[in-house]
Amino acid sequence: MPILVVNSGSSSLKLRLVEGRDAVVSADLPAIDIDAATSATDALERAIGEMQARHEIEAVGHRIVHGGTELTAATAVDEDVLGRLRALSDLAPLHQQRCIAAVEAARRALPALPHVACFDTAFHATLPAAAATYALPAAWRARWPLRRFGFHGLSHAWAARRVAELLDRPIESLRTVTCHLGAGASLAAVAGGRSVDTTMGFTPLEGLVMATRSGSVDPGLVLWLQRHGGLAVSEVADGLEHGSGLLGLTGTADMRTVLASAQRGEREAVDGVAVYLHRLRSEIAAMTASLGGLDALVFTGGVGEHAAAIRSGAVDGLEFLGLALDADANGAATRATGGVAGDRRIDRGDGPAIVVIESREDLEIAGQVRSVLH
């Protein structure tokens, strides 16, 4: 079954055609800058038309960031589902509308085919109550779905399964911390293939320092900015979503630029990397505590796969967890070409495995589409 995978992220739109045995038949569409939603959807429709002229397509799988409390498994798209997705847009303002626009464009281009929505939140539907619950007034929690949802679930699910393959161990036996580090970033604690804790919460704003997002901040700070700083809600929201993270710390959201500047000793970049790594190390330790121990630490996503300095900086100081990085293997992993064959261990072999895995949300989505349609 040739499946067209439409992957809408916070900063790009990717299109791949995946056949049986997870063979990528075509990845002809380069990542599209989706800051301009109209031009992106027009480009998507054109690219789908060109791909359809060259290849057979039998179904379409879509990455959707937020499924809420009801959509906790891959689901065939219809107007009712689209309506429910639109209602969740305020919970993922950088993503949800772009995902929906991509679904609508693909349905216009391929109206006769089944379309399946695959959710980043679904993998974290297994979070135990202790990890998912905010300590908020009972009346609030009864009125609204105020809980930790978690995100990047498609990437975390793939990484957890893939590391079990690489280690030749049953996934049921593994306690794994998966680190999806990209423009958006989150960690997941995965026990036996199930998510039991994660760093993102009600929205994708909680947790780690990201490219333009702040990650976790004191909610009292947000209230102070409004009450005493005189900022409107929209100004605070824009600052936390678009002006914070690496951008706020260093003036650029590009980790490659930040690391190059830090190597030259530029103070803002050095301090920015230190803040990024401090939060990352703290959260890796917290995820390990949720698991009661650690068998494997996985780095994936654009930064996780390509920034050797971030991987070594993350592990540095976590020796008490038994983690020991092989510096040569760590450098070689960054130089390796893409593809599943490039997935590799970068530990010294005398503690928990440390593994670099290419994020393959496309294959995870294709697998979920097959499950829904068969």
For the sheet with most strands, the description reads: 6 strands, mixed
Oligomer: single chain
Secondary-structure content class: alpha/beta
Radius of gyration: 20 Å
Proportion of residues in β-strands: 15-25%
Put simply, the count of helices is 15
Tell me roughly what share of residues is in helical segments.
40-55%
List keywords for this structure.
374 residues; 6-stranded mixed beta sheet; 15 helices
Describe the fold and architecture.
The protein is of the alpha/beta class and 374 residues long. It has 15 helices and twelve strands. The protein has helices at residues 37-54, 79-86, 96-109, 129-132, 138-143, 153-167, 219-227, 233-242, 245-250, 255-263, 267-291, 301-306, 308-315, 327-335, 361-373, and strands spanning 3-8, 12-19, 23-33, 59-64, 75-76, 115-119, 175-181, 185-191, 194-198, 296-300, 344-345, 353-356. A six-stranded mixed β-sheet has the order 3-2-1-4-6-5, with helices on both faces. β8 and β9 (194-198) form a beta hairpin. α6 (153-167) packs across α15. Residues 337-341 have low confidence and may be disordered.
Record the SSE blueprint.
Elements lengths: L2 E6 L3 E8 L3 E11 L3 H18 L4 E6 L10 E2 L2 H8 L9 H14 L5 E5 L9 H4 L5 H6 L9 H15 L7 E7 L3 E7 L2 E5 L20 H9 L5 H10 L2 H6 L4 H9 L3 H25 L4 E5 H6 L1 H8 L11 H9 L8 E2 L7 E4 L4 H13 L1
Parallel strand pairs: 1-4, 4-6, 7-10, 10-12
Antiparallel strand pairs: 1-2, 2-3, 5-6, 7-8, 8-9, 11-12
Helix pairs in contact: 1-3, 6-15, 10-11, 11-13
Concise overview:
The protein is an alpha/beta fold and 374 residues long. The protein contains 15 helices and twelve strands.
